[in-house]
Design a protein that fits this description.
With about 350 residues, the chain is α/β, with parallel strands linked by helices. The chain has two domains: about 160 residues, Periplasmic binding protein-like II (D-Maltodextrin-Binding Protein, domain 2), CATH 3.40.190.10; about 160 residues, Periplasmic binding protein-like II (D-Maltodextrin-Binding Protein, domain 2, 3-Layer(aba) Sandwich), CATH 3.40.190.10. The protein is about 40% helix and about 15% strand. The chain contains 14 helices and eleven strands. Strands 1, 2, 3, 4, 5, 6, 7, 8, 9, 10 and 11 form an eleven-stranded mixed sheet that branches. The chain is globular and about 65 Å long.
Amino acid sequence: MRKIIGLSLLLLLLAACGRAAPPDGPVTLRLMTHDSFDMRAETLAAFTAATGIELEVFKAGDAGATLNKAILTRDDPLADVLFGVDNTFLSRALANDIFIPYASPLLAEIDDALELDPDHRALPVSFGDVCLNYDKAWFAARELAPPAGLADLVDPAYANLTVVQNPATSSPGLAFLLATVDTFGPDGYLDYWRRLVANGVMVTDGWSAAYYGAFTAASDGDRPIVVSYASSPPAEVYFAAQPLSEAPTAAVVSDGSCFRQIEFVGILRGTPHAEAAQKLVDFMLSRPFQEEIPLHMFVYPANTTAALPPVFVDHSQIPANPAALDPQTIDANREAWINAWTTAVLR
């Protein structure tokens, strides 16, 4: 009974923050997104200058929490547009019918491989690859070859060298788990993880604890291999206190060793500003917005005409053949895979 009352109160509170009927005068759009959304105020102001539409950014927690709020309030949406649903949760968003279709003309410039919804309810904005990263200097000093792929991590030569994230509490952790499912199969991934445990893998709750708490290239930790992103090496160069000619880290981008996360934008069903929302979607798919993505969210633009900044060109690699699981398969098995992983690895 308490759970039912609690859920009812949550729905009432969320509904109280919902979208009212459109007032007369200039339109203000609300963009609902996750806490990691980062874009220059000047870039967002350019949208207003071009369209006359005011924009309010509403950060609603991590990607999973943001989607859950959108689903709970689909009859009285909290915003007009939602950005940040990725391919690990896409099927849940589509099954709950929270988006209305919109075939933006900018889709002509978007990589076809990123378009996972043929009905154009969720349109790809960006993508990032979760990969193993390693400390170049650590391996060079010991004359040990860095791992070439996932299978190397269970070799005794790499014992006690790897730190990963819990897939139940971390987005990159979940992406890495999915990479192992794709590479070793639903019947083999748990055996792989048991071998990782036997080889001394460390598990943290989140990315920051792994990267800045255990990874030798970014902390006083003792783990020279970490689950991070293919874009982490350019980030190391970009944020370095002193200019660097070479990234101190590198990503392992061999076939099947990375998992591609694709982030989507969609117009929320029930918005009173559908036409204005379409203009915002167009803007987010256009080159001015897309070219801001790499140095603000450290992922890659979905628009194939968008130019990458030099630090990405010089210090990043895009995996040619990342692990691939369709959203429906992920949605049908995600919780079971996580639960089985928890039993095998943490208990």
